[in-house]
Design goal:
The chain is built from two helices and 17 strands. The protein is mainly beta. It has a single domain, classed as Sandwich (Jelly Rolls), CATH 2.60.120. Strands 1, 3, 4, 8, 13, 14, 15 and 17 form an eight-stranded antiparallel beta sheet that branches. Strand 13 and strand 14 form a beta hairpin. It is globular and about 65 Å long.
Length: about 220
């Protein structure tokens, strides 16, 4: 019996990532022009749009395009992000959101003519961290892993080697909206593209540990 339970746990843990059908996801702040083809999304990002709450700037905005699906529990999500960034603060990437006061967005952000890996974490007020890149990149892979009450965010340039860029708190045991977003706070819009969006279910860590401790002899 013990062997059977452990085998079941190993099988569950090895479930492969599957492509989430983008056309079955829903919009929050739908842009005026977008297309889904071969499970890739292109959009014309809404001008003068963003996600930010209060800190430093003194304003709150919640109006940028966000295509999402609702997920419970623990998971891994990743996507390949490409953008024709031109204006200050043009950005595109992943977003994980509980509500207007609790969300994480991570991806590429164009600031003062340079590409940056950017993460904004919001819990009532927003904070912002960046990793400056020494040159423009044609695309970037962004991956987020939700485990217990933490979200780990990674980046990659080849979908093979991933580097941690942020570890942030997010309430666990709560449904979360997860998907792709892009924003153009300071410009007239730009084109963003998202390829190979996928979500992999991860078995609940506490439950897995409980089953191991309480496996029948």
């Amino acid at each position: 019996m013990k062997k059977s339970i452990l085998c079941s746990l190993m099988l569950a843990a090895s479930v492969a990532a599957s492509a989430q059908s983008l056309d079955k996801m829903q919009w929050f702040n739908e842009p005026t022009k977008w297309e889904i083809k071969n499970n890739s999304l292109t959009m014309n990002v809404t001008p003068q749009s963003d996600y930010w709450r209060i800190s430093n700037y003194g304003f709150t905005v919640d109006d940028a395009p966000f295509l999402y699906t609702l997920r419970g529990g623990e998971f891994e999500v990743k996507v390949k992000v490409t953008g024709d960034y031109t204006a200050r603060f043009d950005q595109a990437g992943l977003m994980l959101r509980i509500d207007h006061e609790n969300y994480i967005k991570a991806g590429i952000e164009f600031v003062d003519g340079k590409y940056n890996l950017s993460t904004v974490v919001t819990h009532h007020t927003s904070d912002w961290s960046i990793i400056a890149l020494d040159r423009p990149v044609p695309f970037v892979w962004i991956k987020a892993v939700r485990r217990l009450d933490a979200i780990e965010v990674f980046y990659s340039f080849d979908d093979v080697t991933y580097t941690l860029m942020r570890n942030a708190w997010m309430p666990d045991n709560h449904p979360i909206m997860v998907g792709v977003m892009a924003a153009c706070p300071d410009g007239n819009g730009f084109k963003a593209r998202f390829d190979n969006f996928s979500i992999k279910h991860l078995p609940d860590q506490r439950r897995v540990e409980w089953l191991k401790r309480n496996a029948a002899q």
